[in-house]
Amino acid sequence: MSDSYRNPFSGSNAAQLETDLILQYWCNPFAYQLFSGIKEADIYEDRMNIVFMGGRSTGKSMFLRYWSYPVQFKAAERDRITFADILKRNQGIGFYFRIDGPALKSFQGHGLSDEHWSSVFTHYFELIVGRQYIEAIKLLQDSNQIEHEIIENSFIPKLCEHLDFAPKSSLDEVIEEFDKRIKHVDRYRGDVPFHTTPFDPGERGL
Question: pLDDT by residue (tens digit) across 104-156?
């Protein structure tokens, strides 16, 4: 008899799966006691870093994406509770950001110092995470789980002042500003092999 076993994820990659499919295919490893060193509450409560190691298709991306806010928002809808309820229960929120080898390699070399590239990457990473924070807050706003007046009259003005953004009137405009600044870093990464210049986060004209 031939071996008929086939990995159901061999032709898929959790990093590219749609949010609904992450939720559909999720199998809670804690229910089967597959982890000996951590428990489910540690995902948000443990202040120490948790490192996952394993080969391809062993579930690392699936695990991390499940705890990210887009999937948790869908999980709340499935369970007929609010996203705010999940945030209160978990006392935290997850963000998934994937950067592959070639992209990471673009933050080095070209006659510029490691300190320079470290600053550029830190700036880029903070923009990515900051954008996701705003997206999560927008999910709360769009589903009427947070008062629009608080967002528009208090949160947005204070955020723009803190980040040195021009005044914005909506979270969509704030996200557009993040996108503009992220694109500025991407352009710099693409141009620096041909024009070695210091990075200036203030030059954001598109």
Answer: 888 988 888 899 889 999 999 999 999 999 999 999 999 999 899 999 999 99
- 84 within domain boundaries: no
In a domain, 204, yes or no: yes
**Cβ 165 vs Cβ 179: under 8 Å:** no
pTM for this model (two decimals): 0.79
Q: Which residues contact 64 (CB under 8 A, 6 or more apart)?
A: 52, 94, 96
Residue 25: inside a domain, yes or no?
no
pLDDT tens profile 36-46: 677 777 777 77
Which residue range is the domain that position 108 belongs to?
97-206
Number of domains making up the chain: 1
Residue 35 exposure: Cα atoms within 13 Å on the Cβ side: 17
19: helix, strand or coil: helix
Residue 151 in any domain: the answer is: yes
Residue 53 CA to residue 59 CA, distance in Å, equals: 10
